[in-house]
Amino acid sequence: MASTTEQEVSAGPTAQLSSWVSSVTLSDIPDEIQTRAKYLILDGLACALVGAHLPWSEKAAKAILEMESNDGAYVFGWDRKISPLSAALINSTFLQGFELDDWHSEAPLHSNSILLPALFAAAQQLSKADRSITVSGSDLLLATIVGYEVGPRVGNGLYGAHVLTQGWHSGAVFGPAASAAAVGKLIGLSPDQIEDAFGIACTQACGLMSAQFGSEVKRMQHGFAARNGLLAALLARGGYVGIKRVFEQDYGGFLKQFSMGNGMDPQYKPNEVAKELGKKWQTNGVRVKPYASMAGTHPTIDCIRKLQELHPEQMRNFEGMKKINIELGEAAYHHGGWKATRPLTSTGAQMSNSYAAATQIVHGSVLPAQYRHDMLENDDVWRLVDMSDCELLPSLAKSFAQIVTIEFNDGTTLSQRVEAARGVNPALSNDEIVEKFRMLTKDIIDIERGRKIEEMVLGLDHCSNVSLLEELMAGVTKNPIE
């Protein structure tokens, strides 16, 4: 199994990571990791199909399509082609379009929205440049796993979720390196070229978390990472030189700059970037969401679900509720503990713990249908949001635990704590991921098309050419919230 050597350790984390990305093969990766990755890819493609014709996705797509000719790489769900860089950007925007996509439990980023759009675009670019080149399902699978492994390691060099508390959109910061690594693997870059790709990708990293409150650009920020990593790898393939030793550089280095003022000691951890490569598989930390909201809201939703299960009659009496208190750890508090006010966009609603709690209480579900425009004006939901307070509880800082307490007008109180959300512990099973895929796609594509996508993805290691999967993804889809 490929792992870091003594020579690579002495070379520094950027060189170690570059060498591993270049040398790792599918045979180095345990069978269970390969199998799990196929199901994760299936989940990502479902999210992309769901997101392709959401109102905000259509606005972005139409603006970009007006600037592009019908040639290059497929746009998911639109039956159009555009340039590979723009395809990576807009397809990622679709995948991130409804907060249904994966996230990582150690260093939060949405891996599929970064990796799959960049890899599909790169595969089509390779085939266009040379008709004799085909990208197999095994090629796609290996490159995706490489990206799953790189993104969280880069994030751990910055203390993972702590980046969110500093106001950075973590995935958009960690993501360019993951995209560059995955594409670099797919197109066969050497270790030196991969180091250049890291240096080109990391200098483009950014993402402001203020995007969560009312903008639509939050949906696109992982797309910037997907596009920029793809660009970095293609430039490196052409001999363009990037920043060397970009992760450990002291002056203007990636980790140094994105950790400025974080109050941590040490300020950043470069050794995390290449730690336990080939031994600890970060793919195991990729979590699949059961709800259409920011991951930090999921324990809140599960608290409400548990109360609804234990006290069904009382929880249906939401008109009798007087006060809702939600206790959160630091990352979740800064990300979702802000006070939501009316009017609110769907993006803001999906980022708010108080809104997620109220939605689960009133509607009994937190899925795409609950974020239609008319649902965002529901008076019952807003009455509960207005009576809700989110509180920072320092003792929860190092866990996924949250506590919800509801006080009723008659003086009774209900309280529930969960240690980790469904999807974190336990993680969604492979069968549950297939169930989610079928549930999400049944009303937006025909059943046979969905069956073919599912069959191809779960059999990637037997697929000689991913172009058919690309074509299946390109067919027109429906808006899931009309």
Automatic annotation (TrEMBL):
Residues 16-265 form the MmgE/PrpD N-terminal domain. GO terms for molecular function: lyase activity. It comes from the Eukaryota. InterPro entries: MmgE/PrpD_sf, MmgE/PrpD_sf_1, MmgE/PrpD_sf_2, MmgE_PrpD, MmgE_PrpD_C, MmgE_PrpD_N. Residues 291-461 form the MmgE/PrpD C-terminal domain. Belongs to the PrpD family. This is 2-methylcitrate dehydratase PrpD. It comes from Rhizodiscina lignyota.
